[in-house]
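RECORD TYPE: inverse folding
INPUT: structure tokens
STRUCTURE:
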């Protein structure tokens, strides 16, 4: 739970600041309390379709927009190739959206996403805090446990634990110039 809070609060810092500013201004500009509908009158959005600030994630919005656009073009009797060209989407994406019987079928994948290291986070945290911080070593250990992701996936997971941006690659130290042999005037 603490990790989720540590991840969410910095990600939504701006909307938290905006909400706090709105709360400060609200008493001066507030309408009478009677005009606010009771909480039961407003239906909550489906679980997982909004972020902490109440906004829909970009993937959800994009999926809804694509579904609407593709279904409209299909209703207008456009071919899949025409839809691909018009919307600048891959044919597989258009085909998947066109075959979907409802938006909910597509939203399941947009809402319930997991990353490859999700099943291995406890192991990664334990090993990292025990002093093993090398992504290549941790990747090798995870491969023995059945992990199918890349070393880069492990590096991206470890980056917030390190608390810094990735280290720049070290350059090889410059070699001193080799002195040229002295030439003799007879030479």
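DESIGNED SEQUENCE:
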């Amino acid at each position: 739970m603490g990790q989720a809070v540590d991840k969410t609060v910095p990600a939504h810092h701006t909307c938290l600041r905006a909400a706090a500013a709105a709360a400060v201004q609200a008493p001066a500009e507030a309408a009478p309390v009677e005009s606010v509908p009771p909480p039961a009158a407003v239906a909550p959005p489906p679980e997982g379709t909004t972020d902490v600030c109440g906004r829909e994630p970009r993937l959800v919005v994009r999926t809804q927009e694509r579904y609407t656009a593709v279904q409209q073009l299909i209703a207008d009797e456009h071919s899949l190739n025409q839809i691909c060209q018009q919307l600048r989407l891959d044919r597989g994406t258009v085909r998947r959206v066109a075959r979907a019987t409802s938006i909910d079928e597509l939203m399941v994948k947009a809402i319930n996403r997991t990353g490859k290291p999700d099943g291995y986070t406890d192991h990664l945290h334990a090993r990292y805090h025990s002093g093993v911080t090398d992504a290549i070593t941790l990747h090798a250990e995870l491969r023995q446990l059945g992990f199918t992701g890349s070393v880069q996936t492990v590096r991206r997971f470890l980056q917030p634990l390190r608390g810094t941006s990735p280290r720049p690659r070290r350059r090889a130290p410059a070699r001193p110039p080799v002195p040229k042999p002295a030439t003799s005037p007879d030479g």
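NOTES: The longest helix spans residues 58-75.
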